[in-house]
Amino acid sequence: xxxxxxxxxxxxxxxxxxxxxxxxxxxxxxxxxxxxxxxxxxxxxxxxxxxxxxxxxxxxxxxxxxxxxxxxxxxxxxxxxxxxxxxxxxxxxxxxxxxxxxxxxxxxxxxxxxxxxxxxxxxxxxxxxxxxxxxxxxxxxxxxxxxxxxxxxxxxxxxxxxxxxxxxxxxxxxxxxxxxxxxxxxxxxxxxxxxxxxxxxx
Length: 202
Prior knowledge:
202 residues; alpha+beta; 5 strands; 14% strand
C-alpha cells in the first residue's frame, strides 16, 4: 500500500510516545482567543501541553499519540469556534497567502461596513444644521438607519457573535464578548426608540 507522508511536525515523537505538532489557527482576534484555544486543548485526555501564539497564529501541542490524534486536536479547536490545520514548514508561501487572504477579507468587511455606516454619520449633522443638504429625508432617517445598520450588526459583525459564543462556552469573556454586548445594546435601544416613536406617530 501507499505510505502517507506527514508534515515534519507530526513526526516528532519522544520515547514515551508523545508527539509534538504545530497547528495553524484561524479566527483569533485577541489574546483571550489564544487562552480559550489553550484551555480547549488542555481539556483533552493525553494533551501534555498546549501553547498558543496569538501573534504567530499558531499552536504548539504536545500530546500522547495513544490517546489522541491530530484530528482530535483540530476538532477541539473547531468546537471552540476557530479553525485549524497542520502547519507545514515545507510550504511557507501557502501560509503567507493564507494570512494575506484573511487580511483582504477583513478589509472587504471594513469597506462594506464603512459604506453602510457613512449615511448614518451624515444624518448626525441634521441635529446641528437643519438646512443641511438632503434635509428632506429627515422624516425617513429612522427607517433608513434601521435598514443600513442591520447588516452591519448581524452580517459584518457575525464574527464577534461567534467569538462571544465560543468564550461563553468556556465560561469566560473576550474582546468579541465586549464588542458584541456593546453593539447589541446600542442596536436594541435604537430599535426600541424607533418602534416607540413610530407607534406614537401612527
